Amino acid sequence: MGMKYVAAYLMAALAGKESPSAEDIKSILDSVESEYDESIASKLVSELEGKVVHEVVAAGKEKLKGFGGGGGGGPVAAAGGGAAAAGGAAEKKEEKKVVEEEEEEEMEFDLFG
Q1: Is 9 exposed, middle or buried (0-12, 13-18, 19+ CB in 10 A)?
Q2: Predicted TM-score (pTM) above 0.90
Q3: What is the CA radius of gyration of the chain?
Q4: I want to staple 53 with a disulfide (CB 3.0 to 4.6 A). Which of 13, 82, 85, 86 is the partner?
Q5: Could you give the CA distance from residue 60 to residue 25 in angstroms, rounded to a whole number?
Q6: What number of helices (H) and strands (E) belong to the chain?
Q7: What is the rounded CA–CA span in Å between residue 20 and residue 16?
């Protein structure tokens, strides 16, 4: 299901519609000249029928808490040694980029001239 349908549904709900319809979603998507598929909108409306949007969002947030926060970092001891090594590698890469740019500038080639 496309996120644009969910976003349009939520916009309609924020605009005061307690139970947005597929037609509400269509009018929102039409206003931004986006493609519209009746079957997707109808499926979304039927799945959310009788539910309060704010409660659905709150329940979703609770489910996402179990996934963690993403990257983060490793243990403190490992990060200390790894960061120094990674920093050195980044400096070497930057030096190579500078050399390549200088070589390109030395060439007297004009693509459009």
Answers
A1: buried
A2: no
A3: 26
A4: 13
A5: 21
A6: 5, 0
A7: 9
Q: Whole-angstrom Cα distance, residue 60 to residue 41?
A: 20
Judge whether 30 and 36 are in contact, CB under 8 Å.
Answer: yes
Three-state secondary structure string covering 56-108: HHHHHHHHHHHHCCCCCCCCHHHHHHHHHHHHHHHHHHHHHHHHHHHHHHHCC
* Residue pointed to by tokens 């993403």: 70
Model confidence at 2, pLDDT cuts 50, 70, 90, reads confident
Model confidence band, residue 37 (pLDDT cutoffs 50, 70, 90): very high
Q: What tokens does 53 get?
A: 């949007």
The whole-angstrom separation of Cα 100 and Cα 84 is 25
Q: What's the N-to-C CA distance of the chain in angstroms?
A: 50
Q: What does 96-108 look like in DSSP terms, one character per residue?
A: HHHHHHHHHHH--
The model's pLDDT over 62-79, given as tens digits with 9 standing for 90+, comes to 888 888 766 665 555 655
pLDDT of 4: 95
